[in-house]
TrEMBL record:
Keywords: Phosphoprotein
Name of the protein described by the UniProt record: Response regulator
CDD domains the record matches: REC_hyHK_CKI1_RcsC-like (cd17546)
Feature: compositional bias, Basic and acidic residues: 119-128
Lineage: Bacteria, Bacillati, Actinomycetota, Actinomycetes, Micromonosporales
Entries under SMART domains matching the protein: REC
Sequence positions bearing 4-aspartylphosphate: D52
Domain Response regulatory per the UniProt entry, residue ranges: 3-118
Any matching Pfam family: Response_reg
Entry keyword annotation includes Nucleotide-binding: no
Disordered as annotated region, ranges: 119-150
Length: 150
């Protein structure tokens, strides 16, 4: 299975995410903020990054932009899990997020989205290539902020 980097500052949520993803067969690496997550991504090259939006030192949007700005990480799939976004918010997709899930998110949806992105693997995130599900019609592109499977 995949190595999933979880960037989440709320320890209780991090424990739940780690347990959920571990039970799904993934290896989980946890960091409590965006700066630590970026450093861990550089060191460990995860298959998928699952990030919260609001975190200390660097938020999820900053983390996404930092990852997209590094050639060795640029194609890494990123999922944003947030309770602070609203349906139709375009900022995460513009930053390079592949999927956005709203808290509270059903466990089966979270597992399915992470698995889908792990199966898809590294892919380009620009609109021209349409390699990212966030830019494809009929997937996350039609409802960029959703709690559903891509």
């Amino acid at each position: 299975m995949a190595v999933v980097l979880v960037a989440e500052d709320d320890q209780d949520i991090a424990v739940i995410l780690t347990r959920l993803l571990t039970r799904a067969g993934h290896t989980v690496l946890h960091t409590p903020d965006g700066v630590a997550a970026f450093e861990r991504a550089l060191a460990d090259r995860p298959d998928v990054v699952l990030t919260d939006l609001g975190m200390p030192r660097m938020d999820g949007l900053g983390l996404t932009r930092a990852i997209r700005g590094r050639p060795e990480l640029a194609d890494t799939p990123i999922v944003m899990l947030s309770g602070h976004l609203h349906p139709g918010d375009e900022e995460p997709t513009a930053a390079g997020v592949c999927a956005v899930l709203l808290k509270p998110c059903p466990n089966d949806t979270l597992r399915a989205v992470v698995q889908d992105l792990a199966d898809r693997g590294p892919h380009p995130h620009d609109r021209a290539s349409s390699g990212c599900p966030a830019h494809r019609p009929g997937t996350a592109g039609q409802n960029r902020v959703a709690a559903r499977h891509l």
